[in-house]
Hints:
By secondary structure, this protein is mostly helical. The chain has helices at about 5-55, 55-70, 70-85, 100-115. It contains four helices and no strands.
Amino acid sequence: MSDEEELENIRKRKLEELRSQAVHQQYAQQQQQQQQQQQQQEFESKKYQIMRKILSPEGRQRMENIRIVKPQFAEQIEMQLIQLFQSGKLRGATPLPDKAFKKLLEQITSSEKKREFNIKK
Length: 121
């Protein structure tokens, strides 16, 4: 076997090794993505179930309307409601009636406005 043939065989083996490593890495990435998607779906499902306990149908509709206009704000409100619910700070009737939810939204938005800073020279 000549040096060129041997060199060509080494190149082919190395190329096959690299291909198999790339396929393995791609498979591992796909598995990780699938796992992350599954975890996200489980989280969304649990969040949905908790929100059904917290809000009345009218309140859930209001939340969906907020989500259409301001998705990040809706997500923030949901997280705050879930924290309040889990800590037991949501007193009174759950699911929250629409009026109580409106009042809570007003409190949240007014507290957000208080966080603004004015810098004067």
